[in-house]
Every structure is written in structure tokens, then in C-alpha cells.
Amino acid sequence: MLIKVFVPAHITAFFIPKFHEDPLLAGSLGAGINLNKGTNVFVNIDEKGLERRVQIAFDGEPVKKDDAIISYSVANEMIPSEFVGEVEIWQYFDFPNGHGFGNSAGGALGTALSLAYAFKEKTFLQAAQIAHKYEVQYKGGLGDVIAQIHGGVEIRVKAGAPGIGVVDNILFEGYKVLAVPLGKLSTREILDSEVVELIKKEGAVALEEVLKQPRVEILMNVARRFAERTGLLTGDMLDIAKELDKCLTLPSSMVMLGKSLFAFLKENEIEKTKTMLEELSIENYYISDIYNQKPKVERWMEGSL
Amino acid sequence: MLIKVFVPAHITAFFIPKFHEDPLLAGSLGAGINLNKGTNVFVNIDEKGLERRVQIAFDGEPVKKDDAIISYSVANEMIPSEFVGEVEIWQYFDFPNGHGFGNSAGGALGTALSLAYAFKEKTFLQAAQIAHKYEVQYKGGLGDVIAQIHGGVEIRVKAGAPGIGVVDNILFEGYKVLAVPLGKLSTREILDSEVVELIKKEGAVALEEVLKQPRVEILMNVARRFAERTGLLTGDMLDIAKELDKCLTLPSSMVMLGKSLFAFLKENEIEKTKTMLEELSIENYYISDIYNQKPKVERWMEGSL
User: Which GO terms describe its biological process (chains A, B) (predicted)?
Assistant: First the structure.
């Protein structure tokens, strides 16, 4: 059987990391956006064979266990211990890896949900918790999985794994999202550095303001302030953000954590923004709708791939 | 501006009521199904006028405040205190009222979400909590609102309002849902009677089994046992359930709480089930898909009504 899961890309606008020994209690507070582009996971289960084999591929290329340790760990826990046969997990990413779009969580969650659908031994939240657990353990991210299961423009109001943390949504209207990946950034390095204290302080201020006035307009204002005050958005990237702002009603900001920018676009701002990106010699950008649903899990017809 | 919200009908399969002084901590544990038919709420906001006026209509007929006290209370709390003008709330129900399909919660939640979308002062969960609060306070129901915001085949694993209670989902494949409304039943009367103790006991047994094996097949088996052992499914209704079972793989059961039956249908069971319903002289029934998303909130174009 072949199963397909779509998990939205998730952009964090600002955050407060919450570390905890128990990965189910670790997570983050903050806010972000789920996009209608992201990670597509196809899982093919073949019950023939004499041994248990799990293969994972990123964008069509098989990867070694160590390079996909999060998804391998998820698969290993989701596949029943008595299963004998082959499980192929094909993960396709609309956004580049390591740029802050939640690919790692998307692959982990897509893997968990496909296998929950196939083997019918775990619920939606149990599968999502397993994805969250290995994301946290191997430092893929803290809040992407729980954000992705809710969709929309989200506010993480209580940290933790799915079923423990709480995610709220802002209702919005008439926006698309521009995403501009400019380079990689190691989440791990930032979270291990001194800037974490500043992130916690500025994150708390930002969260309070968004909860007081839950609107995307406020969200983007506080996100930009967070990005600048933490010193994460500086130099060339800040210069590009300022150029983009000239075309936009709401300020652009930095994707947490990637060397990437994002912004809300109104329909009538799309053309001038494209022209500006061309002037800045930026060819690699995405304009997406916001994805307002849960991840989509379905049986995929053979032959329609 | 005209806003449309769709909230799925919600059928409870079994439940454990959790009463609490604080309505945000009251709720229910249990399991149920969200359907792709339900309640459509259209809200029209006209900022002209000298005073604040709120009008509610059920299926096109204006209703008095006392007959729509839950939705009036929700509207009153959701509309900003400084607002002057007219708010018309049109609620349309696919299923008959009082038969256990969550119409009251659908109307309350649809009203809350439309007004959150219009006035941008409250988040999704804040609006849903207000709907839950008045549902509980005026005994419309305990678990419908939180079930409806999650969609799908749901298991309520922690009781409480949206943002406090926890709802999980069972992943399923290839089923439609048959719903047969046969008569009204007062939720309030059942919850005030002695049968509550039996409901709590049988509900706990059912929940444990579904969590151990989270499959719709188990869900329907324990739901039917719950319905019979609590003495709620008896007499003519039980006779009809047994007739329906002859056409079905999974047992049918009773909607909690309404004099209504429901069942999962496979594609190849639809025709013989229709023939059986005809033989039983039952003309009023519904065959729906399961609704797997959050309630849909959107601006509705004038003229497309």
C-alpha cells in the first residue's frame, strides 16, 4: 500500500524556547505561519520479504540512517515490532533544507502519520508526539511539529508536545506569504549560544502583545522587532528586509531559524514585490497561500505518482 | 460584511460527563464523529444605525432571545462593547434540532468564529471557549464544541473547554456515515437522572478499549455495548439497529444524546442499507462523509447566497 501525507512548511516568526529533560514537556512558545507548500511524504509498505527493512529518501535520493536519524527513529517506533517486510519512506521538500521551513519536522510528522494510518496501532496525537519527541531529542526543532498539526497563523500559548502544548490561531483575511531563503543557519548553534537569553526576553514581550491584539498586523510588527532586537536580523539580510518593506504594508521579518526572510503580501503588492526581488537579483523565492488545515493523510493510488 | 462559517455536525458515540463549577473545566470524555453536513452560519454586520442590535434566525426564521439564549450570549460577549450597528446571525441546520447532532454547539461556535473573524479582537480558541462556556452553562452540551474544532473521528482524552481539554483523532479509511434521526431526547433530563452513574462507568470502559486499539471497528463495538448497557438503546430503536446490522460490517449504534441511530458504511453497503431503510419505512436519513478539518471561516460574497 502507498500512503501520502502533506505537512505544511512552518515559519516561526518569534519564539521562546522551553527546554526540559522530558522531550514531551520541551517545546516552544511563539507564533508562526503554515504554508500550503511544504513536505510530501510517500510511504510504501511491502509485506513480502524475510526481514524488516526501512529505507528513507530525501527528494528521491536514499539517505543513510545517520543523515535522517529523526525520521528513522520515528519509523522504528511507529512500525509494529512484529512487522516483517519493507517500508520505503520518500520525503519531498518544497523548500530547501536548513533554511527554517520545518522540513525536518515535516518529514518526521509525515512519516509518523503515514505509519499510524497504515498500521492502525496509534492515534493522530500519539504519532505526532513520537515525531515531536525525536525532533526535540535530535535538535531538529522545538515547536514545528505541534504548529504543523494545527495549521494557519498560529500562536503557541503553552509549550510541549502535541496533546500537551496548546496552539491557538489568528483569524486573518486576504494575505499570501512571501518566503525568501537566503542561506542556512544552525538552530543548534543559536540555541547553544548566549543569544538565547535575549530570545527569551524579547519573545515574551512579543507574545504578550500578539495575545493582547491577535492580528497579523501586530504579529509582523512584533516579529520584526524581535528579529532586530535579538541581533539575529542584521547586515545584508536586514538591508534586503528594508528594501522589501518599501513594497509592503506590513514589515517583512526573518524566519526563525534560517537565513531567510518572509512577509505577508496583499494581492496588489505581489507584482511590485516581484520587481523589487528582481532588482535585488533574488531569483529564489516563494509566494504561497496559508495552509489552514491539519496535515492531509490519504491512500495514494499506485500509478498516480 | 457577510461572513460564512461551516461547523460539522457532531455525533457522540459514547461519553463520560465531567461536571465542574467552572464551565471551562466542565466537558466530557468520549468519542464521536464529525460529518460534512452540519451548521452553516452567515453573519451580516452593518455598522450603520444608532444602536446595537443583534438578531438571530434559525433556518430563516427569526428567534426570540430566550429560544436562542446560547448564541445570543455568545454574540453579546464577542461583539466589542463599543460597537454600534446591526448584527444579523443566520443559522442553517442540515440535521433536525434536538436529535443529537450538535446543532446548538454548531450555532454557538459558528457565531463565535464569525465574530472573531469580523472584529479581530479574539483568537480562534478564545472564541471557541466562549461558545463552549455558554453551551455548558445553558446545558446545550458538554463536548460538542471541542470535538467540532478538531473534526474527524475524535476521542476526547481530557475534558474541558477548547485550549484546556484534549481531543485526539483515529485515522480511518473508506467509510461514510449513516445517520437516522428518529426522535428528540432531552440531554438535560438524561444528565439529571440516575442513569448518569451507569454512563460514567460504561463510558470509562469504552474509552479504555478505544485507546488501547484506536480503530473505528473497536469504536463501533464499544459504542454499541455502551448504548445497550446504559439502557439508552432499547425497544423499537434497538430493533431498528439490529435490522440495520444485517446490512453492515460494523454494528450500528445510538447517537448520544438523541433518539437517533448511526453507523459506518462501506461503499458496497450503501445500496442494501437504503433498501433496508425503505423496508423499515424510514424515509428520513442521511449518508455523509466524515469532515476531517477545522470549521471553515470565510468572507461570503454578497449575491452568492
Answer: coenzyme A biosynthetic process
- pLDDT category at A2 given cuts 50, 70, 90 is very high
Do B149 and B23 have their domain in common?
yes
Structural domain of residue B96, as residue ranges?
A: 2-168
Residue A205 in domain: yes
Dist. CA B170–CA B166, nearest whole Å: 14
Backbone angles phi, psi at A164, to 5 degrees: -120, -55
Give yes or no: residues A18 and A143 share one domain: yes
Q: Taking the model in full, what pTM does it have?
A: 0.95
* Structural domain total, chain A: 2
Give the other-Cβ count within 10 Å of A258's Cβ: 26
Chain A residues 194-253 within an 8 A CB cutoff of chain B = 211, 213-215
Contact (CB, 8 A) for A136 and A18:
no
Number of H helices, E strands in chain B: 9, 12
Closest residue of chain B to A129, computed from CA coordinates: B168
**Closest in A113, A123, A215 to B155, CB measured:** A123
Q: Are B125 and A168 in contact (CB < 8 Å)?
A: yes
Contact A123 B215 (CB under 8 A): no
Q: Give yes or no for a contact between B294 and B167, defined as CB atoms under 8 angstroms apart.
A: no
Check CB contact under 8 Å for A294 and B297: no
CATH of the domain at B255: 3.30.70.890
Q: Where are the alpha helices (DSSP H) in chain A?
A: 69-78, 103-119, 124-137, 144-148, 187-191, 195-212, 216-229, 235-245, 270-279
Show residues of chain B in contact with A126, CB under 8 Å: 168, 214
Q: Is residue B264 part of a domain?
A: yes
Give pLDDT tens digits for A45-64.
Answer: 999 888 999 999 999 999 99
Q: Do B201 and B268 fall into the same domain?
A: yes
Chain B residues 285-304 within an 8 A CB cutoff of chain A: 292-294, 297, 299
Query: Does A27 share its domain with A60?
Result: yes
Is the separation of the CB atoms in B209 and B222 below 8 Å? Answer: yes
pLDDT band at B303 (very low <50, low <70, confident <90, very high): low
- All residues of chain B having their beta carbon less than 8 Å from the beta carbon of residue A213 are 121
Q: State how far residue B195 is from chain A, nearest Cα, in angstroms.
A: 30
Q: Does one domain contain both B191 and B119?
A: no
